[in-house]
Amino acid sequence: MITHYRKNQRKIAMGLLSFHKYLKEEHPRLKEIEHYEEGEPYQLYCYYYDEATNNVQGVLGIEQLNNQEIILHDISLNPSYRGEGLGFVMLDQLQEHYPEYHIIGTTATAAYLAKWKRKTGNLDGTN
After folding, report:
1. Res 37: pLDDT
2. CATH code for position 88
3. What distance in Å separates the CA atoms of residue 20 and residue 43, rounded to the nearest whole number?
4. What's the pTM?
């Protein structure tokens, strides 16, 4: 389940973002987190694979645009959970949160987003 990021999740979110090759250094990760903490239009979501354990296993970073579009800036999942389709589950849940929005990617997320859209048949990125 995805939930809105809270500041007490900063360390785990920074750790998950460190899997991005462009966010390997701490300074860019810190700037990225601060960007999301400023709020609208940027949002960070945490993904709980098992809510009972209260362990964040993934993050989604988005920018909500006024024209019914969401830019997917970041998607990261704990390596232990990769290959199980959970990244697509995260995107499904994001789309459920924003059913009227078209999800678009960045150069870093476009290829993964395209795979999700093909798998779900959601080629326009809306519900």
Report:
1. 87
2. 3.40.630.30
3. 18
4. 0.85
